[in-house]
Amino acid sequence: MALVEINFDGLIGPTHNYAGLSFGNLAATAHAGQASQPRAAALQGLAKMRHNMALGLPQGFLVPLPRPNHAYLRALNAQPETDDVLTAMAWSASSMWTANAATVSPAPDTADGRCHLTPANLVSMPHRAQEWPDTLRQLMVAFASKDHFALHPPVPPSFGDEGAANHMRMCAGHDRPGLEIFVYGRPGGKFPARQHEQASRAIARGHGLDPQRSLFVEQKPEAIAAGAFHNDVVAVANENVLFCHEFAFADPEGTYRRIRQALPEAEIVIVPDSEVSLADAVASYLFNAQLVTLPTGGMALIVPSECAEQPATRGYIDRLVASNGPIRQVLPVDVRQSMANGGGPACLRLRVVADPATIDPRFLIDEAKADAIERVISQHWPETIEPFDLQFVSLEETVVKARQALLATLGLESLA
Ligand code: SUG
Fold this sequence. Notes:
Helix 2 (38-54) packs antiparallel against helix 13 and helix 13 (367-380) packs antiparallel against helix 14. The chain contains 14 helices and 15 strands. Helix 11 (311-322) links the parallel strand 13 (299-304) and strand 14 (327-333). The two termini are 32 Å apart. It is of the alpha/beta class. Strands 2-1-15 form a 3-stranded mixed β-sheet, covered by helices on one side. The longest helix has 18 residues, at 393-410. It has a single domain (4-415), classed as L-arginine/glycine Amidinotransferase, Chain A. Residues 18-22, 25, 28, 92, 94, 97, 99-100, 125, 128, 165, 229-230, 232-233, 341-343, 347 line the site of N~2~-(3-carboxypropanoyl)-L-arginine (SUG).
């Protein structure tokens, strides 16, 4: 079968909670201390997958990582009763945002003709830095075929790497050689710049990318300061189309010029700040969208439903659809529980261009499997978690059992 784009969504784990752990992520900070709804969150994530499957798009998933992470608490000599922030870190369900799981370079882009993946070290945020060993373990199962995939260790600290959230690929078609665009931040601003330029360059070298088809672009410091803690909060690309905010890149004209040089068929849709300000873009997450090519032809932008509630964004979307541009449809999905932690539709998915037959089928989903997962979530996921619940043994028993039930349903007990 031909190479296709498969979106691997993070199944939202039973410990989903609002602890305000991510400085610079305005939604996460704003919701710190609120009660979360893990069951509703996971069902919303699953409904998004079903929505995209109904469009005819291939869909995969990654399972939540083991939480609470006692080894992490032990390493920090922390006690749940007294060290509440560290405990919240050990409970974090942040692996749901699989756009931060890895950077993926599809086979047509790499020197050895295999699809290369490097798990993100996520060193900028302590609660996320614990993810990569378990993420890598899972990727090694899902992408075990050495004929088709190459898995790398993460970039060493302190070069922060946030994975696909700061990486875009443009191409004439998914199965054609692509231009890989790495977006990094310059430190020293109001909020952390999580992606280090040297991390991006190390990955490009490791993946065997052609320097002629690799771009390293600085994110505009004002975007990070406005709450765009990842590039995917202000830009998204699919095939020959880049959809971005006017203030996404430090040198926008130079960036567009280099893209057009490398890919003459590139179409760049730039949203002016006068129409959607950076603040509005961060609030609505217009760019944290899935820009997809539909099997019926044409592209659709799958946006969070918050976009319809934010007047400037809604007005822009109406004009976008009415224009004769490459984006023909804008489709809202409800992922509010994730959005409250700063994770929109694009954060929840990792794109892998591959032949589905080369991937472990346990990580691919169809309607019947979605039904089975839904039953496990409905039966086992906690309805609500209050921040002070995280110290309770009874809740821990519930979430550990919930994950075990999921793994058993999927035949993935080896990831326990
Ligand atoms: O790293 N939120 C995540 C959101 C990640 C979004 N991903 C992309 N843009 N691709 C983060 O900031 C909040 C956790 C908390 O506060 O409990 C959190 O980790």
